[in-house]
Design a protein that fits this description.
The protein is an alpha/beta fold and about 300 residues long. It is built from 13 helices and 11 strands. It has 2 domains: about 80 residues, Winged helix-like DNA-binding domain superfamily/Winged helix DNA-binding domain (Arc Repressor Mutant, subunit A), CATH 1.10.10; about 200 residues, D-Maltodextrin-Binding Protein, domain 2 (3-Layer(aba) Sandwich). Strand 1 and strand 2 form a beta hairpin. The longest helix is centred in the first third of the chain and has 29 residues. It is elongated, with a radius of gyration of 32 Å. The two termini are about 45 Å apart.
């Protein structure tokens, strides 16, 4: 079915006859009878009021008018067939659907996708970014999600353990620092990531608590809160305050000095981004899984 040529009516018939110089041969490759091909040509000549073929003892030959029409018809058929093949090859390309959250997709995955495409240019990837954790694999081949092993089971593989460090621009640090200790951080203007209920990752409250620091409610006037981590990072780059930087997500910003570390690193045991295995394995999912694991190990 995929190789069946698109019906182009008389254009394909005439192009085949002109190329092969035979009504019978054209009929054979087109899956038609010789009388049906002869009828198409005769009807075409009647409509155009010109002879397109000269009947020879064996086969047919194009008239000058027929040659002019053949040049256009054969080129048109070739162009259309090439275009149709490209349409069909695109629809048959393997497409892998990966579900993850906004932070991982925008800060970790997308900057690396060019390298993956260089390795596997024939594969199409559909990234489904969402903060909804219900039905993690609904409509997706596999997922990369934040949480703990207890939430995802023994088949999940930890890609990025949660390691965090306060980050800001050098300009913000120069104007508001130095932050010589955790108590200084608690007095600064902080950038927050909103969550529903208790935060499942380090937020400023839990980060400072791990360091044994409480915070004066009057500190840090004019703080900002965001519902996506990408906006938190953008606000930090815009020198709006201090943000919790997830190592693995902000590494390139730290290495380029767009952001700088401004406090101690903390790590959460058994918490981070987990790779949930594909619902059904294929050569394509195996390639993408292996690449994700390899990239995470480089981090």
């Amino acid at each position: 079915m995929a190789e069946r040529p698109v019906d182009l009516g008389w254009v394909r018939v005439f192009a085949a006859v002109g190329k092969l110089g035979s009504l019978s041969s054209a009929a054979e490759i087109l899956g038609l009878t010789q009388p049906a091909v002869s009828y198409q040509i005769r009807r075409l000549e009647e409509q155009m009021s010109v002879n397109l073929l000269q009947r020879q003892h064996r086969g047919v030959e194009l008239t000058p008018e027929g040659r002019r029409l053949f040049d256009i018809a054969s080129r048109t058929v070739g162009d259309i067939d090439m275009l149709v093949r490209s349409f069909r090859s695109q629809s048959e390309r393997p497409a892998i659907r990966l579900r993850t959250d906004y932070a991982f997709s925008s800060l970790w995955l997308i900057p690396r996708m060019h390298a993956f495409r260089l390795l596997y240019p024939e594969m199409d990837i559909q990234i489904v970014a969402t903060q909804r954790m219900e039905g993690l694999l609904d409509g997706a081949d596999f997922a990369v999600v934040f949480g703990t092993r207890g939430e995802f089971g023994g088949d999940a593989q930890l890609l990025l353990p949660e390691k965090v460090v306060p980050v800001c621009t050098q300009g913000f640090l120069d104007r508001n620092g130095p932050f010589t200790g955790p108590a200084d951080l608690a007095k600064a203007r902080l950038l927050h990531l909103d969550t529903r209920g208790p935060s499942p990752w380090f937020d400023w409250k839990s980060y400072l608590a791990e360091l044994g620091i409480g915070r004066d409610p009057a500190a840090g006037h004019g703080e900002l809160s965001f519902n996506t981590y990408s906006l938190v990072v953008q606000a930090a780059i815009g020198e709006q305050g201090l943000a919790i930087g997830w190592l693995g997500l902000v590494d390139s910003l730290l290495s380029s000095r767009m952001l700088v570390a401004a406090g101690p690193i903390l790590e959460a045991q058994d918490r981070g981004y987990w790779l949930l295995p594909p619902k059904s394995r294929s050569a394509e999912t195996d390639r993408l899984v292996a690449w994700l694991i390899s990239e995470a190990q480089l981090d």
